[in-house]
Automatic annotation (TrEMBL):
Source species of the chain: Microlunatus parietis
Keywords, alphabetical: Dioxygenase, Oxidoreductase
Top-level lineage group: Bacteria
Record Pfam families: PhyH
Keyword Oxidoreductase set for record: yes
Protein name as annotated: Ectoine hydroxylase-related dioxygenase (Phytanoyl-CoA dioxygenase family)
A Gene Ontology molecular function term of the record: iron ion binding
Signal peptide: none
Length: 301
């Protein structure tokens, strides 16, 4: 199912039902062109910081590299806020993102992760089938994937298995039996400004490619505060610290010349955070632990 962003920025009942049934939802042209252009410029800077080792002091580990045939290739940047550009906060505070978050997590949504994942030009390593985070499914946990470049069917686009989010999958058996041709799997054709919302338990991955252009996707994960406080893996202090990102994002977005109507944050009063007084420190709230995912190898999200 595809959809066009509406003036309210909230998902409608049909979109929410589609997401719950299939584990994903595509929103075409959800992010305005000006914001996409600024994000592309910022991510170019992050990639240069990582490759040259010139990232913010103490954040060197946020730039992730993998060995590709004996060469170190960067593929990920974690904790993107505070990397020299306000645009990641502007995106977080935009109604285009927070309208989705409220629609699926309720008004007490918590921004839990923010990362840039990319395939560098000519680096087409696969992302094997996996589930991001497995949980009891008493609440929705989801990623909002903001595409900054084309990701086309037949060229290593993301593949998802609709409906696979309902239970923990046996990834090894699935991959051994079907490879990349899992029954029911679809390729997700995406363009700059499109958003893919995916349940953290949907089985997904992307095959290897060769000689393709740079492909960047920003991932913002959200969970209801009620889910974290009831099931972990984090505590109330961590939730409070993470919630402080929201007013920072709202203020950053409001400063954009092309800002749309502001998002009205309706968080419960008992959860509304009080600023700690150091905005820079509030931009990078790290994870001491993670909700385990499923892979055909040891690992977790």
């Amino acid at each position: 199912m595809t959809a066009t962003a509406t003036s309210s920025y909230l998902l409608d009942d049909d979109q929410v039902e589609f997401f719950d049934r299939n584990g994903y939802l595509i929103l075409r042209n959800r992010i305005p062109a000006g914001l996409v252009a600024d994000l592309r410029r910022a991510t170019d800077q992050w990639l240069e910081q990582g490759r040259l080792g010139r990232g913010p002091a103490g954040q060197e580990g946020d730039f992730k590299f993998a060995d590709r045939d004996g060469h170190e290739v960067m593929f990920r940047v974690d904790y993107v806020h505070g990397k020299g550009s306000a645009v990641s906060l502007q995106l977080l505070g935009s109604p285009h993102v927070l309208g989705i978050a409220e629609s699926l997590a309720g008004p007490n949504f918590v921004p839990t992760y923010e990362s840039l994942v990319f395939k560098a030009e000519g680096d087409g390593a696969p992302i094997e089938w996996h589930q991001d985070a497995v949980h009891p499914r008493n609440h929705r946990i989801f990623n909002i994937d903001i595409y900054l470049d084309d990701s086309l069917a037949g060229h290593g686009a993301l593949r998802v298995v609709p409906g696979s989010q309902r239970a923990e999958a046996d990834i090894c058996t699935l991959a051994d039996r079907s490879g990349w041709d899992v029954p029911g799997a679809i390729e997700v054709d995406m363009h700059p400004g499109d958003v893919l919302v995916h349940d953290t338990m949907i089985v997904h991955g992307s095959p290897a490619t060769r000689g393709e252009a740079l492909r960047r996707t920003l991932y913002y994960e959200f969970r209801p505060a009620e889910q974290i406080l009831g099931e972990g893996p984090w505590d109330a202090d961590w939730v409070d610290a993470r919630l402080r990102l929201v007013p920072l994002g709202l203020r950053a977005y409001a400063e954009r010349a092309d800002a749309a109507e502001p998002y009205r944050w309706r968080i419960d009063d008992q959860l509304r955070p009080v600023p700690a007084g150091d905005p820079e420190a509030e931009l990078r709230i790290v994870h001491e632990k993670h909700t385990p995912g499923t892979f055909c190898s040891a690992g977790s999200v």
